[in-house]
Structures are given as structure tokens and as C-alpha cells.
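Please, structure for the following, as C-alpha cells.
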Amino acid sequence: MTDSVQPRYQQRPGYRPPPPGMQRTTYPSAPPNLNVGGLSREERLEAKRLAEEANFKFSGYQVVRREFISHRFDPAMTIRENSITFNNSCISKLEEATYVQFLINPTERKLAIRPCDEGARDAVRWCVIKGDKRKSREITCRPFAEMLYELMGWEGIYRYKLQGMRINYEGENLYLFDLSVKEAYLPQTRDPVTGKIKRPGPILSSDLLGSFGMSVEDHVASTQIDLSDGYISPSITNDADEEMQSSAVTENVEVYA
């Protein structure tokens, strides 16, 4: 018997060689620079981008609510039964305003914050000046806050946090707050063992959780306001001890709520 070198494929366990007379078919490899349809990859991507651009419409899109995404350092207002507080982000982004007026539209459930001069009627000081910085302060206004709670049907046990939207009305920068879009917070508690303060998370109303947000059309319309249509300037009466409290500077009020 003549010794012969066996093909390598016969040494593989379980390998079944092709029947006699049948040869293995090989296929030529694709050219390295093959362009499908005569277009390069960059050209195909650009063609796809142009097609998407030509067919894109805002119809059917919803603007995702800011309340669903981390907004720790965004402008915000917190309302309690006896006071209102704006966080430092809100204070710093309204230019150099020290005094503001509160304008409320009870029908649309919106509150506008409008910068004004110190001597203007119904002017409210919303911040404390310390050096070259302006800091948030607690605005004591029990009658006004209680009216807001009654208007909105809010529960007295909660404090309510609202995200502010800065808009421009006739060349004037304002803050607009939608009172119907709010986060409710239970009072803070202290752990009896560790002594650490427990900050409860926000509670969103069920109507907010029913969708991602407003349609693009409604979102644009929500920023279109006319201060002469339905807005009134409430007379905010502060408690007698407000001037004593005005010196108390609050750093990043409600930012960590």
C-alpha cells in the first residue's frame, strides 16, 4: 500500500467530502471600491439627508415636557400656602431685575413675572442684592398664595414647583408660568436615626403622564400672550415681618427639591 498525503479536509471530524466529479464553487470577491448605484457612501448619506429634510414636518410631533427630564438648575418658582420663592437660576437670567410685578390670568391659569422699577405700583422685590450678586429671597404673601391654591384646587399639604419659560413680549423679557403644569412635593422630613433631611421626589399629575407633551403647534401657541387680554396685576400684601426676612439670603432655593 502506497503512502499518500491525505487532504486536510479529510482530517476534520464529521467532514463529508463532495461526491466524485463535483468541484467546490468559488465566487469572486467584490471589488474593494464598489459603489452601489454609482454613488459613494458620503453621497448616499447626503441623498438620504436631503430626502428627510424635504419630507420633514412638525405635524404629529410632541415637545417632550421639561418635567420629564432633569431640570435641576432650570428657572423655577415654588409656591407654598404662605409664600412664593424663585430659584437663583430664575433670578440670574432675568437680566438685572430687582423688582417685579405679578400678572395673573385666572382664565388661562398662567402667571407672568414682569420686571419693573422700584417705585412702580404693585412692585415686589424678588431678590436680595449682596455685593455684585442677586440672590433669591422668600416672598411672604399668604393672601395671594391662598388665592392661588383655591383657584387651582391645590392641596395645602403640598408645595408646588413650576418651571419658568422666558419669553419676549413687545421687546420686554418676561417669565411665564403655566400653573396647570406643576410638580407637587410633600414636606421634607428628617430621619430620626441619622438626622439627615429626606427630600421627597416630585409627584406629577396624571394628566401630564398621559402624553409626552404638547404638540408643536400648541407649544408655540402657549408662548403667545397678550398682557392686555385677561391679565391682572394682583396687589400682593406682605406680612409685617417681611422686611426682617428680606435679609435672609437663600442659596439655590428649591434647586435640590
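DSSP finds five helices and 17 strands in the chain. Residues 239-257 have pLDDT under 50 and may be disordered.
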